[in-house]
Design a protein that fits this description.
It is built from three helices and 13 strands, in the order βββββαβββββββαβα. The strands form two sheets. The protein has a seven-stranded antiparallel β-sheet with strand order 10-9-13-7-8-12-11. The protein has a six-stranded antiparallel beta barrel with strand order 1-2-5-4-3-6.
Length: 205
Amino acid sequence: MFTGIITDVGTISATEMRGDLHVRIACGYDTGTIDIGASIACSGACMTVVELGPDWFAVDISHESVSRTAPGRWETGRKLNLERSLKVGDELGGHIVTGHVDGVGTIVSIAAEGDSTRLEIRAPAELAPYLAAKGSIAVDGISLTVNSVTDQPDGSTVFGLNIIPHTAAVTTLGTMAVHDGVNLEIDVLARYLGRMEQLRSLTKR
């Protein structure tokens, strides 16, 4: 379990195909405090630590995870938003994030808005019902508030976010470009409400 508050930006230093994709990630964490088997969210995808070095950790990424995350996300040199798992008693600064990617969005526009950056992302049609203005969403593992939602004729949704300078500086959002893919995780409450509504509709038939 995570909160969507990024605590480090790591860099993929090496990759190797070993049946699953083996990825080494350089980081600023004190790796002496990380256990083998610990969970770390890597740009929103929960991964299990399988190796440790003095300034890096490694994870194995299944084909399923590669296929469900943003294209090119696991290439050498790629920057990743990192968050270690939540401990009982920790401050819940963002919202409850599971580290399970629900879909991949595409950045459609980036514009300055005051001191902040206005970011608009197209979400696929299957996620559209779970997005609402002032609701929460995790974008590449970052807990953010949805400011606007504009439904599209093809069923997809374009949602808007305002990124303050601090968030842009301490995450990968400050280096993103139009057409880049991002990992999306809908709010867990919205997921359960959607399932309840689905079952309610089935019982009325």
